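Researcher: Going back to the complex we discussed earlier. I've cleaned up the inputs and rechecked each line, so this should be the final set. Can you rerun the prediction on the complete assembly and write out the structure?
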Amino acid sequence: MPEGETHVLLGPNGSGKTSLITSILGFPSCHILSGKIRFNGTDITTMPTDERVKLGIGVAFQNPPQIRGVKLGDVLRHLTRRKFDEVKLAGTTNIPVDFFGRDLNLGFSGGELKRTEILQLLAQRPDFAIFDEPDSGVDVENLEVIGKAINEFLKNRSGLLITHLGHILRYLKVDKAHVMFYGTIACSGKPTNIINRIMKKGYKWCERCPKVKRLH
Amino acid sequence: MNAIEKPAAFGPDLDLGAFKRETSPWPPCTISTLPEDIVQRALSVGISTEEKERAGTYFQIDHSAILQTIRKTFSGKAEIMTTGEALKKYRWAKEYWWKIVAADTDKFTALAKLKWDQGYFIRVLEGQKITIPLQACLFISKDNFNQNVHNLIIAEPNSEAQIITGCTVHPNVQSGLHVGISEFYVKKNAKLTFTMIHNWAQNFNVRPRTAALVDDDATFVSNYMCMKPVKSLQMYPVAYCKGANSRVRFNTILHGNQNSHLDVGSKVVLQGKGSRGEIITRAIASDNAQINARGLLVGEHEDSKAHLECRGLLLSDEAFIHAIPELVGKVKGTELSHEAAVGKIAEEQIQYLMARGFSETEAESLIIRGFMDTSIFGLPDVLKKDTERMIDATFGGAL
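Model: Rerun complete. Updated structure for the full complex:
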């Protein structure tokens, strides 16, 4: 991915989108059998997760775990390192300040989970931000809030958006789209073409593509 | 008395003859004139040396009560003295003595009856609200020593108070036996918050025996914290919700480390109409520690309700936690429930925090610190600050 661009990664459930993210982060659930992961010229293939993150990679997760007793506010303050105002930031993702005292992801609704994930990423300010399904389970009103926040944030950064619904794309400027099938990028191209086709005809349309058939 | 031979229902048995009883008395003095090493240990169990932070202080070293004071602002509102003095001063005091803890329960209660070494009498007078905590420190200065205290705490009707009790030993003490009998009487519409903090030594044995009687519309909150090594600690305090609308809450934070054997439980007996009980336990086991975390709710009134929650966190493969929650319903209409969970730190949680830039060590410490989150206990601010300081001292603040 070239610097400063925003790409969208589409693909049916189980095609390997989330595995790609966990590989980029270096979670032990994914083993790199071949190939290298390079970020800003550095080979990060074997680097521990926190070091990768310090280089400027950040992820807003699809299904973040609940952590009892660890407060959202504690994590936010750690991320901002008191350099800027996390309260103001919370406003941009429509998160009330009383959420800062709540246990991380415990009892959050689907939409609240997405918004607090995005909030944490905004506080983390990575050069390369990955958003895993930021639009699933979010109501229309908040979809716009989230879309605008992500768009604003990605103005001077690189971003990868993972979605299979595509709702969020209405609010975002995307440079390129990719479609993943069976763990491989089956096609890449102009976002409007690819997205419109998939939104209209679903992934059934892709399955008829000779490239995808070959992968299968 | 045959009871002196009777092993306790739980916990390892001990040979009472293995501990020394002889000691020379300590003269009365103020906290500020105590030796620095004693003061430091007292601070580690929540005892404050700042006069303005506490409404009154009881301090006992070995068999000697060295200090019993009430600040002027609170005189006539609360009393602190040795239980020996109280039994002499008030003829009625014997009505509260060995009434809810039976002397023949086991060899430890029998020992406390036969070889009794004072203990504190704290009484909050009717209608009085003591706005800052009262404190008591039970201290052992000699190695391989046996101390048997018997405490009596009475919250008179419509009173309100917080008591902090810190029990600890001199840094030179390695082994010994502390037996503490405590009888609590929380009368009509009174509210008593009792917080006990222990800091013993590697080869030290501890056997508290505690009971509380809670009257109509009264509330008893008991907080217990033990974060430091001990050879064996066994206790199973009980609260009887005798009165209508009586409330009881037991909060326990345990950290078993090294070779500690902790057998700690709480019991609530719901006897009054509308009585409510809650037991919350957080136990962490590291090194070779063994923890039995017990809990028992007994519903004896048809309009009663209680919940028990026990969470255990294992930080070592050599440690174990046995959570034993029990519910006994004796009448229809009582509502008793429990939830218990024992496990290690979820790998998923560590990875998630590492993906936010925390190192593995920082992530672990943040999760452990969160596990010991005292905000669920609803402590008064002053106690919350003290307990958090102690947890931070053990597990470190990641942030």
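Model: Worth noting: Chain A has a mean pLDDT of 90.
Researcher: Good, that matches what I expected from the previous run.
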